[in-house]
Write a structure and sequence with these properties.
The chain is mainly beta. It is built from 5 helices and 20 strands. The chain starts with 14 loop residues before the first helix and ends with a strand.
C-alpha cells in the first residue's frame, strides 16, 4: 500500500528500520512504546505514531504528553475528557520525563544520589544509600523509594534520595509527579526542588520549592511550601499550605507546580491550592530566577517528620512514583 499513511506491523521494529524499509509510521500496542524510547527518533525521521489499545487515563496522559499522532481506544469519551485536561492542551510542551518503565535501578542518565547519614540539617535518622535496589528500585512501571529498618554507619534506617542535578535542570515550567505515599508515624516523604548553582548563597538564600511533603503523624495531609531568605521555617515565615486528601496511601495523585517569572502555583491533581507571587522586592523574597533540579526522597524522623516519634513497625515503607514530567512553554 504505497499511499498508506501508517502501515501495521506485528512485532517491534525500530524507527530507523521502518524508515529504511519505506514505511510511513508505526502502529503498535502502547506497551511497545513504553519499552522503547522511540518517540523522538520517530519524529526526527518524519514517521507517524499510532498507539493502541489505550483505555486507561495514565496511558492516555503519557501518550498525549508525548504528542503522538494517533491513539486507538475503546473509551473515546474518556479520551476526549483527558485531552481537555492534559497540560499539552493548555500550551505546555514536554521537555523531560522519566516514566520508570525499566527494571532495577533508576536510569542513571536521569538520576544521581545524595548519599550519607549526616541528619541533612533536620536531625533525620536515615542513611541515604547510592544505587541500592533495596532503597531505590524500578519495577512494574513505578519507582519505589523505600525506607528500611537497617543499620548503616551508626544510623538505624536506610533510604534513598534521588536528584536530577546536572542531568536535568530547569528554570520555569510545569513539574508534575504522580505518586502514592508511604504511611506511618515517623515517615517523611518529599517531592521537591533545590537550586543547582545556589546563585544567591546557601540555604535559604537561593530558595527551595517543596512540591509535596507529608509527615506520617498527620495522616492524609500533604503540604506545599516555599522557602526563601525572607520566608523560611527557621524564622517561622515560610509560605505554604496543607491539604487533606483521603486516599494518598492507596491511590495515585499528581503533585505539581507551575512556575513562572511572576509566581509559583501549586496543584494536587487538578486543584490549585496555593500561589506564591513574586513581590518584585528582590532575591530575599524571590530567588526563583535560576536553574533548579528535582529531588525525590523518603526521610525517617527528623525535626518535623519525627516530632511525635517513629513507629518502627511501619518499615519497610515505600513511596511509589509512576512518573516525573517537566513541561515548558
Amino acid at each position: 500500500m504505497p499511499n498508506a499513511k501508517v502501515a501495521y506491523l506485528a512485532g517491534e521494529v525500530a524507527p530507523e528500520k521502518l524508515k529504511a524499509d519505506g514505511f510511513a509510521g508505526s502502529d503498535y500496542h502502547y506497551s511497545v512504546f513504553q519499552k522503547n524510547n522511540w518517540f523522538e527518533p520517530s519524529k526526527k525521521l518524519g514517521l507517524t505514531i499510532n498507539a493502541w489499545t489505550v483505555n486507561t487515563v495514565p496511558e492516555m496522559e503519557w501518550l498525549l504528553a508525548n504528542e503522538v499522532d494517533y491513539i486507538t481506544t475503546n473509551e473515546p469519551e474518556l479520551l476526549f475528557e483527558t485531552i481537555k485536561k492534559t497540560p499539552v492542551a493548555k500550551g505546555w510542551k514536554l521537555k523531560w520525563a522519566d516514566e520508570f518503565n525499566g527494571k532495577g535501578l533508576p536510569d542513571s542518565h536521569n538520576w544521581g544520589y545524595d548519599v550519607g547519614g549526616t541528619g541533612w540539617g533536620n536531625n533525620e535518622k536515615q542513611f541515604y544509600t547510592k544505587a541500592d535496589t533495596l532503597n531505590a528500585n524500578v519495577e512494574k512501571g513505578a519507582l519505589n523509594i523505600t525506607a528500611r529498618k537497617a543499620d548503616q554507619e551508626q544510623m538505624k534506617f536506610t533510604s534513598a534520595r534521588l536528584v536530577s542535578k546536572n542531568k536535568f535542570d530547569v528554570k520555569y515550567g510545569r513539574v508534575e509527579v504522580r505518586a502514592i505515599l508511604p504511611k506511618g508515624r515517623g515517615i517523611w516523604p518529599a517531592i521537591w526542588m533545590l537550586p543547582t548553582d545556589w546563585k544567591y548563597g546557601n540555604w535559604p538564600k537561593s530558595g527551595e520549592i517543596d512540591i509535596m511533603e507529608h509527615v506520617g503523624y498527620a495522616p492524609d495531609t500533604v503540604h506545599g511550601t516555599v522557602h526563601t531568605e525572607a520566608f523560611n521555617h527557621v524564622k517561622g515565615t515560610q509560605v505554604g499550605k496543607a491539604l487533606k486528601v483521603n486516599d494518598i496511601y492507596t491511590q495515585y495523585h499528581v503533585y505539581a507546580i507551575e512556575w513562572f517569572a511572576d509566581r509559583i502555583d501549586f496543584f494536587i491533581d487538578d486543584q490549585k491550592y496555593l500561589t506564591f507571587k513574586n513581590s518584585g522586592k528582590g532575591m530575599a523574597d524571590w530567588p526563583f530566577d535560576q536553574q533548579f533540579h528535582v529531588l525525590l526522597n523518603v526521610a525517617v524522623g527528623g525535626n518535623w517528620g519525627g516530632a511525635k516519634g517513629i513507629d518502627e513497625s511501619i518499615f519497610p515503607a515505600s513511596m511509589k512514583i509512576d512518573y516525573v514530567r517537566v513541561y515548558q512553554r
